[in-house]
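Predict the 3D structure for this chain.
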Amino acid sequence: MSSRPAQGLPLLPGFSFLDPTKTSFHRSQTLGYRNGYAYARRPTVGIGGERLYANQLSQAELDELANKIPTLTYGNAKQAPPSDFVPAHVAFDKKVLKFDAYFQEDVPISAEEHYRIRQVAIYYFLEDDSMSVMEPIVENSGIPQGKFIKRQRIPKNDCGDHYHWKDLNRGMNITLYGRTFRIVDCDPFTQVFLESQGIELNPSEKMIFDPYTELRKMPLRKYITPSDFDQLKQFLTYDKQVLRFYAIWENANSMCDEKRSFIIHYYLADDTVEVREIHEKNDGRDPFPVLMKRQHLPKTLVDKKKTFPSCVLEISNQEVQEWFTAKDLAVGKSVTLLGRTFFIYDCDKFTQHFYQERFGLDFQPVHIKQQPPEEVPQIIPPYNGFGFLEDSLQNCFSLLPRPPKKNIIKMLENDHKVLRYQVTLESPDPIDRKRCFILSYFLSTDMISIYEPPVRNSGIIGGKYLGKTKVPKPGSTVENPTYYEPADLTIGATVEVFGHRFVITDADEYVLNYAESNPDVFPAATLQSLRDHFAPRRAAKQATESKLSATGTNRQELEELVMQVQDQMRQHNYLSNGSLREAFLRQDKDGSGFLDKAEFLGLCTRFNLPISDALVNKLISLCLHGEDKISYHDFIRAFS
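Done. Predicted structure below.
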């Protein structure tokens, strides 16, 4: 760290002090950059931040003035200082040499041109000795043009040398990356620059143009006599006036040999023709309305040359000898449009009136009788036995079968309404004849299910015998199926269920009540058979009620006793599964509703009911009819 004594103090030992106000002791920079170039600048602040004065002479300058010997003014002249060094990127910035050149390119795939002349411009950048080749862009030339060779230093030979501006001149060939360019001329700046460097330029040459391009620029001389026909007058006169013809096309190549209907529109404004197809409902065709778009249709073509392609995108007037006009279309005649023959059988009123005034023709429609297609009889295959008949039949009517419609009102009105019957199996085996079944008829869906109550030590496993399904009657056919109805289920009737015969032996009391409330559904014979079957039970019930009233016991006492029995069953968690009722019904052979006292007590002992003996005896006494008969209906109601 440098130190400097304070001003005004003697420079004596021990009297040197540091200035605490100075904090910067670095030396100021004398070099700087402006616009990317270095230049010298005079510092304004010295070491420690002291200000420097521009007119103050340094110690070296003072010494030079003190020791300098004056000379005469007419003595030896001083030499001029050498010029400053200027780099190439500054001296030759934005200075480019331009040469006009061309090269020849072979065209092996064209029959009309064998080679092609392509004009380019060669640019030489003096600042870094790089070159680029640009080709002017020509519209619709079909050739990618523009930057042909990007700016770079181009090698001259295999020794590592690159092209220099001294190697370029007019009237010479130059090879760049295997392609030879002919330099024909240069711009004025290039000419002045090369001559200033002592290079003698060759005389300029004429630019060669592409012969095929120049041939296409030459107009074809055609001698066409001007026509008297005025297209503008035709457009203004017949604008929005269209002739409409109705035609058919017989497609002989089709497998079905079908006839398709079309509408031919002839536009009078410009003599164009349009063909539209008439689609019918469910004809099986895609809805494409236009068969031939609006266009001029050729009637007669000129003789094709060998060089004319067989497939063209557009037909010009050179290939067509005659076009279709309004006089070529008439009702009752066939016309061929683009290879398809149409037979015109009718037209609209405007078209008929136009031909009467213009050509004096009166068209009469041609009646075309199209035979209706033969109706193919629908053969329904035999029923395979899987599922319901209505469900299987839907597969014959639709590819995607839908479920058959259901009677929703009937299902809602008869929901949870079931008619139950007791049936026995009609079989030569005596064991099967003793088997009892419960047949349930569901009024909401007209289905039948059969259930066999399990019997202990019978050797037969009970349970579901037939699931819910519709059971057809004997003699029912697939075309006219008939199923069992409630009117067919009478006492003693035989029901045939898929080869098994069942005999109805008993029915639920709800069946009789439902039959009496719906007399229009049940025949008189069925209703009378049910009444005859339930007559003994009703008589016994009436006798029991009369006995209860005769002994002074009212119905309220019986109901209270039933509630007491049910309360004791709830305390013992006893669940009735219906086996008690089935045992009493099975024991009642004649279906009278009464059992002998000995049989009744034996059944009660068999089930071991969790009820006190006092309540059981009192309940039996209330259900007693006579001396030995007991009505078990009220007794079973207490344990259900």
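Residues 536-638 form one domain.
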